[in-house]
Amino acid sequence: MRILIFGASGRTGREVVRHALERQHVVTAFARQPSKLVAKHPQLRLIEGDVGDLAAVRGAMPGQDAVVSTLGVATPLKHDPVVIDGMRHIAAAMREVGVRRLIYQSFIGVSESRAAVGFVLRFVAPIPLREEIADHEVKEAIVKSSGTDWTIVRPPKLTDRAASGRYRIGDGIRTWVPLPMLARADVAEFIVRELEQPAYIHKAPRLLP
């Protein structure tokens, strides 16, 4: 499968790149700073670009089978209109070129999924994270109206630990752990597996330990 990954130089994006290459997929990594990607692989193509540039996003799209977005904000805890525009550009370019499959990494504190988590993520985190959560809600709406075969992935707080391979997936799962955490490597494994064997098209599954 030919996979285009936006946000590929971020911590989660790098894990998705690594896991997709390990699974023998052909990966195009789109990033503002592709030099952050230390992976070198014959099936890896690096594109330096900004998602705020529609032409750059459109230029990366031809020939792809699927798109993954792990885009993060430029400044933590701040509203990032460029990334919101970037999601619009990704959706528009996919429609133009005819790429159908889209996976967007969101956050379990978004929308109705906030009721699925413990005290910290439900009541405390939304205060400092209010701008990021609001941005995720806008981007989720863009994804849902994109006309693609989309999946929105909602993990909890992410860590850089090694993959555990032990996590739950579902639309209605819950946890009472005050601050649930999951390894980025586990999220990457789920994303690539969902591309290979779709089970959550037009759904927003939660990932929880």
Description:
- The protein is of the alpha/beta class and 209 residues long.
- It has one domain (2-208): Rossmann fold (3-Layer(aba) Sandwich), CATH 3.40.50.720.
- The protein is built from six helices and ten strands.
- A six-stranded parallel beta sheet has the order 3-2-1-4-5-6, sandwiched between helices.
- Helix 1 (11-22) packs across helix 6 and helix 3 (81-97) runs parallel beside helix 5.
- The chain is globular.
- The mean pLDDT is 87.
Give a short summary of the structure.
With 209 residues, the protein is an alpha/beta fold. 33% of the residues lie in helices and 20% in strands.
Map the helices and strands.
Layout: E1 2-6, H1 11-22, E2 26-31, E3 44-48, H2 54-60, E4 66-69, H3 81-97, E5 101-105, H4 119-124, H5 130-144, E6 149-153, E7 157-159, E8 168-170, E9 181-183, H6 184-196, E10 206-208
Helix pairs in contact: 1-6, 3-5
Keywords:
alpha/beta; two-stranded parallel ribbon
Total tally of structural domains? 1
The number of helical runs is 6
CATH fold name: Rossmann fold
Choose one word for the global shape.
globular
Order of helical and strand elements? EHEEHEHEHHEEEEHE
What structural category arises from helix and sheet content? alpha/beta
Overall pLDDT level = 87
Into which percent range does the helicity of residues fall?
25-40%
What proportion strand?
Answer: 15-25%
N-to-C CA distance = 28 Å
Parts with pLDDT < 50 across at least 5 consecutive residues: none
Number of strands: 10
Q: How is the biggest beta sheet arranged?
A: 6 strands, parallel
What is the C-level CATH assignment? Alpha Beta
Strands of the widest sheet, in order across it, are 3-2-1-4-5-6
Corresponding CATH superfamily: NAD(P)-binding Rossmann-like Domain
CATH structural architecture: 3-Layer(aba) Sandwich
> Using only CA atoms, what is the Rg?
16 Å
